[in-house]
Amino acid sequence: MTRDHCTGTRQTDSLPRLNSKVKKKQHHQRGLGGVASSSPAVDEHTVDIEISFENASFLEPIKAHLNSLSFPIQVNSTDQVINILSIEVTTVCRPAGNEIWCSCETGYRWPQESCLPHLTCQDHGGSPAGNHCSCLKGLPPKGPFCQLRGDVTLRMSVRLNVGFQEDLRNSSSALYRSYKTDLEMAFWKGYRILPGFKMVTVTGFRPGSVVVTYEVTTTTSSPELMRKANEQVLQNLNQTYKMDYNSFQAVTSNETKFSVIPEIIFEGDTVSLVCENEVPSSNVSWYHVERRSDVQNSSRFWIYTSVLNNMTSLSRFTIYNITQGDAGEYICKLTLDIFEYEARKKINVTPIRISANEEMQVMCNSPVSLNCCSDIHVNWSKIEWKQEGKISIPGNSETDTDPRCSKYTLHANEVQCLSGSAGTQVVYTCEFTSAHGARGSKNIQVTFTSVANLIITPDPISVSEGQSLSIKCTSDVNSYDEVYWNTSAGIKIHKRFYTTRRCPNGTESVLTVKTATREWNGTYYCIFRYKNSYRVATKDVTVHPLPLESNIMVDPLEAVVPLRGSRHLKCCIEDDEDYKVTFQMDSWFFPAAKEVNGKQVCYKYDFTANSVFQCPKHVDVFCHFTNAVNNSVRSTSMKLNLVPEMTIMCQDPVIGVGEPGRVIQKLCQFSDIPSSPGGPAGGIITYECVGSQWKVKRNNCISAPINSLLQLAKALIKSPTQDKKLATYLKDLSISTGKVENEVSSFPGSLGAIINILDLLSTVPTQVNSEMMTHVLSTVNVILDKPILSTWKVLQQQQTNQSSQLLDSVERFSRALQSEDGTSLCISQTNVQMKGMVIRSGHPKSYKQSFVFADSDLWGNVAIDNFQLENLQTDSSIVTVAFPTLKTIIAQEVQGENFTNSLVMTTTVTHNITMPFSISMTFKNNNPLGGLPQCVFWNFNLANHTGGWDNSGCYVKEVNEDSVSCSCDHLTSFSILMSPDSPDPGSLLKILLDIISYIGLCFSILSLAACLVVEAVVWKSVTKNRTSYMRHTCIVNIAASLLVADIWFIVAAAIDDHHYILNETACVATTFFIHFFYLSVFFWMLTLGLMLFYRLVFILHDTSRSTQKAIAFSLGYGCPLVISVITVGATQPQEVYTRKNACWLNWEDTKALLAFIIPALIIVVVNVTITVVVITKILRPSIGDKPSKQEKSSLFQISKSIGVLTPLLGLTWGFGLATVFPGSNAVFHIVFTLLNAFQGLFILLFGCLWDQKVQEALLNKFSLSRWSSQLSKSTSLGSSTPVFSMSSPISRRFNNLFGKTGTYDVSTPETTSSSVENTSSAYSLLN
């Protein structure tokens, strides 16, 4: 097959022309010699034909005629057959003024070689944008005409109205191959008429009847020609396929030009998506793939489609202020007839990212540059700087060498940035704008600070050791992040030495040293830091050497000097400075002689007692040390006692002389105690002259190594770098204590010195690591060793509180402990063990620690549940320290014989606990038969702040043969006490009292309720006269008050029984109402008695019912209210209104319980007296003193009620008062519980049902005669409300009325405190 291109004659006139391309096939007959055969040979040619017209109006009819032809058209000749397959118009030239414009038809274009040398139509605005070669001015002189475009693959489909079979899904099935072969043959025959047709392929089948998908490779074809081709397909396909002509669809994707402006899209840009297709149709739609929706015009989206020159479709989709959500793939689809011209483009939206320092500090008078840079290299249309703030400080924008960046230079002068604006923040914004409208900005917060003018104490600071010094540093700027002081070595001085405060016009920081030492000599730096800016002021401090008073050792401390005798006096220091030393006696000063002995320098003077002095006389002698700057210090006094020589009996060259019975003290280093090479010994030794010999009365000497450490500790806490030196010192202390253990056991003074050292060091405000804590506990282990217990006894005999002091020191170290590496802490020594953990974020475990001391046969456990740990701050440390021997030595005299051996366990938390905290402990019970255990903690506030055991907030959970379990609501030092007067748990007495309490309370409440019901039923029948009315009014109020009081007792008992952490407000309210309503019971009984007395004694005086009621209610409720309010008002401000572990009136601290006991007992006495007088008056009336028969009956009934109820109530509270005293017999507890348990029943029987009128009213009401007869015989007495049993919830409430708290009966001696603010965390067991 060959292709020939023939071009017709070219015209040079201006007539319209039409070029057509004719496609034909020629069939030739060829003969071959010898064999007769015929075979058609087919040649295919394409011929270009040019047609010119005289009239342009002929163009469209000719084109229409050509389009209407049916192909193929057969042309016969003698030797060949020609079939014309198609005729297509390719090029049309039309006159345009004096020019001819030639344009290509659809599917054709000018070759590139024709476009370049010729002037195109768009130069004059006639060609669509983007189609630069669709129209030329005149035909190219050397041809060719418009040519077919490049290959286009049409994705097409058509429906067959036959049933779909599953084999059509399988490309290897026979059915699939049969369909494919038949369809491709029909497609080939039909689409070969398309210009540039190359191939057609069936790609598959899908349901929907049967939808055939296939691809046609050709050049762009017009809809008219495609319809003709589809008709040819239908004619060439077997009719059994039932092809639906109207179902043809075609999609082409490479005919559309899709462009996006700009190429790099930023958030906020205005973006244009342009779809251009040389198809004259405006039916264009846009689709966003990610949103799965068609794009419609809106405020941000705008679509405009137009057809240019009836040839080209141009659709522009504009997105305003584009966002990240608009990113994704877009489809532009043009629909024309069966054709869909589709193009896709994916766009990415990039946020504008600008990098800059978000915060900057600018010092006034100092230029600074602000810089902003974008992350992407783009030529920005504009970069602007803006500012917003209280002050206006503009700058200059500069172009950076990097086009991505912009620089803004500020220079704030004094006018713009006054001192008042120090710390003022201004926000500068750099805004980048793209060429298409996107804006990105970055805020830079600039803080303007004036140059802080620091003014430090101007005067030279020159002090001597022992004096105080103060350095004031002020700034005119009150905005700062930190103010601190440094030494010349760059070491921060601890905050305890200085204070900083803001003033209206600046800031002031004052460094204060109460006792200057030589370590404070040097230069000090006052540093103000704001952000990364520092202002520093310096001050030189000169500390001149001068001994501290405590470092001047005098000999003697006191001495006896015989008249006309002499005595050597000396003052020694560990310092060889050049001092002027004088001895002062009264107003006389004497020069001293200097003597150097190694490191020690002594100044001596020989005192002579001459005849000037009279005997006896006491002389105080001092030595004065004066340094180079004329500052002086005076030693402690040396007391000289002048006595007649004849009285002296004791003489010693070292100790001195004295008369019998004389007691003197002497520094140990000047005594006859052997000296050690480690330096001078410390402490004081006391001598007494017995007969003619000096005897050691008390030895408080401190060994030289320990004394040296004590002096270093005293110097350490005065050092500016004490926190840095602490670790080294604790290590030295541990090593030295271990070496001198024998000396510690021999000298109580050494033991006391070590305790004082630990106390001093525990006040150093710094964190303690595990290594430091190991050294602390190593020292504690030595001084708590069993061989040293005898030395502890000497300290206890001297009434010192050093055992409590030791416990307090260990707790302070524990609270400062921080773990560096893990969550577990564990240190174990023979006489002390420490375990703990660090609370980490999301820590799942509860706190459980066990301690076992095999040598002491003691053990204990501590537990804190996970719920409690969740309330602690992250990185808090919980530390428990257990001591097996401390209980034996700590404040033994406090408990006397009630003491049992147990552990002392102290638990601390590094951070403060702001909410109630529950801790459970288990102690080994070494005294299972010794009585009821009592959980206690060490309260440092007791015994004049020397400490003692306290049971506030603690209770016993469980007692076994070998263990005691305790629970407390605070972290303190815990132990166990034994209460000898309390019944053992599970004892018969305890069970009996519990039963009486529970049964009695039920009877009491039911009886009181019944009494009120009966009174309501018979009220009208029994209140016909004034006396009966007032009597029943009193009975109703007595019953109601006692009923309410019992209910409040239930509330308080529930709190105590469940050991809830006593809410102070709720407990105070409960106590107040119990007090008030119990007093109301007594005062209404008093009202009843006074009313009876009034009716019989003042017969002729008549008072109205309303007046009597007013007086009765004022007395019955007014007086109790006044007493209750005064009681709570006088005691609650000091928090001593209630007991510490029970909701009832305090007895131990304020005796507030007397506000109930005294009124109650007075009323009992008054009512008994009234009853006797009234009964006598009724039996023996005076002349004219005869009340009516009805009133006499009421009065007699009243007197019977009072006569029975008052003694019962009086006896009840009398027995209750007896149980307060320690050692009271158990009989008092039983009787008191019985009487109190049935108090409500007594009121029902004797106050209500015993009244004959009440009985008659009930009989009339219910007609129960048998009940009446039985009731008249019911006169037996019972017992009362469950007030004072030993350990049931309700019984504990009543027992608390007279001294019982918690789980102990009223006789239990409680150790309480008026304050628990300063409490230890040591817990133990006493018997």
From TrEMBL:
Short name of one Pfam family: ADGRF3_N
InterPro entries in the record, alphabetically?
ADGRF3/5_N, Adhesion_GPCR, GAIN_B, GAIN_dom_sf, GPCR_2-like_7TM, GPCR_2_Ig-hepta-like_rcpt, GPCR_2_secretin-like, GPCR_2_secretin-like_CS
Q: Per the database record, which ranges form the Ig-like domain?
A: 256-348, 351-449, 452-542
Q: Where is the GAIN-B domain?
A: 823-984
| Composition-biased stretches (Basic residues) | 20-30
Give its localization. Answer: Cell membrane
Question: Which intervals of the chain are annotated as region Disordered?
Answer: 1-39
Per UniProt, what is the membrane topology?
Multi-pass membrane protein
| Sequence intervals crossing the membrane | 995-1022, 1034-1055, 1075-1098, 1110-1132, 1152-1180, 1201-1221, 1227-1250
Q: Which domain of life is it from?
A: Eukaryota
Task: Give the SEA domain ranges.
Answer: 148-255
Where does the record place the G-protein coupled receptors family 2 profile domain? 993-1251
| Family annotation (CDD domains) | IgV (cd00099)
What keywords tag this UniProt record?
Answer: Cell membrane, Disulfide bond, Glycoprotein, Immunoglobulin domain, Membrane, Phosphoprotein, Repeat, Signal, Transmembrane, Transmembrane helix
Q: Supply one GO molecular-function term.
A: G protein-coupled receptor activity
Against SUPFAM superfamilies, the record matches this protein to: Family A G protein-coupled receptor-like (SSF81321), Immunoglobulin (SSF48726), SEA domain (SSF82671)
What GO cellular-component annotations does this UniProt entry give?
plasma membrane
Q: Which family does it belong to?
A: Belongs to the G-protein coupled receptor 2 family. Adhesion G-protein coupled receptor (ADGR) subfamily.
PANTHER family (alphabetical) = ADHESION G PROTEIN-COUPLED RECEPTOR F5 (PTHR45813:SF4), IG-LIKE DOMAIN-CONTAINING PROTEIN (PTHR45813)
**Subunit arrangement?**
Homodimer; disulfide-linked. Heterodimer of 2 chains generated by proteolytic processing; the large extracellular N-terminal fragment and the membrane-bound C-terminal fragment predominantly remain associated and non-covalently linked. Fragment generates by the processing enzyme furin remains attached to the extracellular N-terminal fragment. Interacts (via N-terminal extracellular domain) with SFTPD.
Which function does this protein serve?
Answer: Adhesion G protein-coupled receptor. In alveolar type II (ATII or AT2) cells, required for normal lung surfactant homeostasis. Modulation of both surfactant secretion and uptake by ATII cells is mediated by the downstream activation of GNAQ/GNA11 proteins and may be a consequence of increased cortical F-actin assembly induced by ADGRF5 activation. In the kidney, may play a role in the regulation of acid excretion into the primary urine, possibly by regulating the surface expression of V-ATPase proton pump.
Tell me what this protein is called.
Answer: Adhesion G protein-coupled receptor F5
- What are the leading ranks of the lineage? Eukaryota, Metazoa, Chordata, Craniata, Vertebrata
Which gene is this protein's source? ADGRF5
